[in-house]
Amino acid sequence: MQNALLVGLSRQVALRRELDVVANNIANLNTTGFKSAGSLFEEYVGPNARAANVSGGDRRVSFVRDRATWIDLSQGPIERTGNPLDIALDGKGYLAVQTPQGERYTRNGALQINSSGELVTNEGYQVLGESGPITLQPKDRDVTISPDGTISVREGSAAIDAQRGKLRMVAFDKPSQLRKDGAGTFNVPEGVTLQPDTDTRIVQGAVEKSNVRSVVEMARMIEVTRAYTQVATLLTQQADLNRTAIEKLAEVPN
Fold first, then answer.
1. pTM greater than 0.85
2. What do you get for the CA distance between the two ends of the chain, in Å?
3. Which terminal Cβ of the chain has fewer Cβ within 10 Å, N or C?
4. 92 neighbors 175 (Cβ within 8 angstroms)
5. Residues 127 and 95 sit within 8 Å (Cβ to Cβ)
6. Are 141 and 152 in contact, with CB atoms under 8 Å apart?
7. Is pLDDT at 40 greater than 90 in this prediction?
């Protein structure tokens, strides 16, 4: 009976972890550039726990173990906004941004200009160009971002374009190993090589929406919740069975 309780508990822990992942996906359904996540679990065979089988022998007891969380890096739908500072990345590249924790990478192209004239993300992180942070002048107007990331402006009353830098876009040899460091930023672990990206194209006046599939995530949340409830019911029945057995033993006359 104790084995059943332990197996059920391991299953509940795994379901709780999966529910957290699904809930986070749903919470970021409208987060620009967000990549959904999923959970991976594996069977863990206890080295000591045993359970009797129908043939009269012993068999190993299997538990559920949380192995990892994986990230779906597929591209989300591109939505037109008309804002000249909004960009969508059409390809597998990432923008390089400067955060308080160091350099990070994102596909969130909802850009802004801060009080210092710097091009930043909606979280306030500096967007990096090939020569460092990109800064615009107070008189700059008619911002144009070309497909290769070159930023051009009209300065004051000038009739010709002036360049303010080129967005630094990067790719990775092992993108599946990227680690989330916030809702829309990624950190690069050791063993992953970073390289310039020349294939991704910039779409100005648009953003890449989250790749979360709302219907799938809602269905999964219902499924996980039901499974959790079923395991809880099983554990309650096992506890009641233990209590009943103890009460019956207590009634046996000496």
1. no
2. 26
3. C
4. yes
5. yes
6. no
7. no
